Amino acid sequence: MIGRVGRGLAIAPAFVVAATLAACSAAPSASLSPADCAQADANGVVQLTAANLAFDASCISVAADTAFSIRLANNDSEPHNVAIYDTPDKVNEYLRGDIINRGETWDSAVDPLLAGEYYFLCTVHPVMNGPLFVESPG
Ligand SMILES: [Cu+2]
């Protein structure tokens, strides 16, 4: 009886190792690169469109210490806006746009931001969100 228990314990560590390896082999979630984000055009305007309860960009990338503006176009039956915070906890607010309806467009200037990663979302539908990368020139 004692011998069988001992053999069982010896097997356990091998099982733990196998489970750990399986976890590590899981596909990582897709990471966002600033190059894939909505960016300011030559006039410093970042274009965003809302449709089907989603923004057409999963992230925004702008230059640090540089004023820019966001132009939100609503092509959805739902009302939307865009707001910028430092984190999803919304401690510091940098922009809170007007809520607009289908067919409306809303522009707002954003003061220059220090380099770092911020957070944008629609305050009506917080599931519509993404990172705002503010990058110093390379
Ligand atoms: Cu919304």
Provide an overview of this structure.
The chain has a six-stranded mixed β-sheet with strand order 1-4-10-9-6-7, with no helix packed on it. A four-stranded mixed β-sheet has the order 3-2-5-8, with no helix packed on it. The chain is built from one helix and ten strands. It has one domain: Immunoglobulin-like. The model is unreliable at 1-29 (pLDDT under 50). The protein has one helix spanning 2-24, and strands at residues 38-39, 45-51, 54-55, 60-63, 68-74, 83-85, 93-96, 105-110, 116-121, 129-135. The protein is 17% helix and 35% strand. A hairpin with a 7-residue loop joins β6 (83-85) and β7 (93-96). It is of the alpha/beta class. Copper (II) ion (CU) binds at residues 78, 80, 122, 124-125, 128.
Multimeric status of the protein = single chain
The CATH fourth-level homologous superfamily:
Cupredoxins -  blue copper proteins
Low-confidence stretches: 1-29
Shape field: globular
CATH architecture descriptor text: Sandwich
What is the number of helical segments per DSSP (H or I, 4+ residues)?
A: 1
Query: How many strand elements?
Result: 10
Total domain count: 1
One letter per element, helices H and strands E, the order comes to: HEEEEEEEEEE
Spatial strand sequence of the major β-sheet: 1-4-10-9-6-7
CATH class designation? Mainly Beta
Beginning-to-end CA distance, first to last residue? 68 Å
How can the largest sheet be summarized?
Answer: 6 strands, mixed
Mean pLDDT: 83
Radius of gyration: 23 Å
CATH domain fold name: Immunoglobulin-like
The proportion of residues in beta strands is 25-35%
- Fraction of residues in H or I helices: 10-25%
Bound molecules: copper (II) ion
Structural class based on helices, strands and sheet pairing? alpha/beta
